[in-house]
Structure prediction request, 244 residues.
Amino acid sequence: MARYPRVDKISNGKKTVNKGAWSAEEDRKLVAYIMRYGIWNGTHMAEPAGLARTGKSCRLRWMNYLRPNIKHVNITKEEEEIIINLHQVLGKRWATIASRLPGRTDNEIKNYWNTHLKKRCAQEKLEMPIACDVKVNSNPNNNLTHQNPSIAILHPTEATNLGSPRDIPVGLNRWHSRCNMMGEDANLWEQLHSLKDFSAIEDLESMCPNSGSLLPSSECMYSDGVYFRDSQDDFTIDLWGNWS
DNA sequence: AACGCAAACAACCGCACCAGG
DNA sequence: ACCTGGTGCGGTTGTTTGCGT
Prediction:
């Protein structure tokens, strides 16, 4: 969507920088410069490229629009599904989501989410019953497994319920210590990533296109502990990793 | 035809992180 | 250990377009 360029004076009055929409001429200059010299220094590329822009603006324009392999076509249904599924698992980590969609940028996905998908998903979520997000794959007869349970995400569309560290039924002793170390607001996904026995990461690729439930029979409740049920047994663990 | 409003989206802004000095 | 500059990321803004009245 076109925007008219505008020119802002920098505070000392000596230099002016263009803001707003990029003209075709500016695009041409930027592309020509990058093709010739590469992006060796994003901050200082504007001046040698002959552009009255900030380096940051140049970088953004390049990354979001001019870069080769950027798709300038509408997001497909398949891509939309992937975005929805990944958003439910990753949250607003647009750059990570974009990395799984070749030719799409974080900015594009963010905009698409905010304008097309946010309302729709909010509505669908209201209609969806609260269900279990994670499953402890443990054998109650195996003490080692008890101490170090591994987890698998059941269904991507439900993973957003993993809102707080209190919701995580995994290796709770370790979890507890990690929370102390990283702070309560530490990002869930990074923490899950950091758990060596978190087994769901590798499944992400396969489960995103077809968000099927892996283990539909299990359940859990969140309070000061977590209750699990699988095909073989019921058990609970509290926030300090005590099993019963 | 004119107006108002919402949607769409490019671009900007501020903050956090990281690497090098 | 601290400082500084560069980069990346997510949130927000500003402008155009499209549609309904």
Remarks:
- The mean pLDDT of chain A is 57.
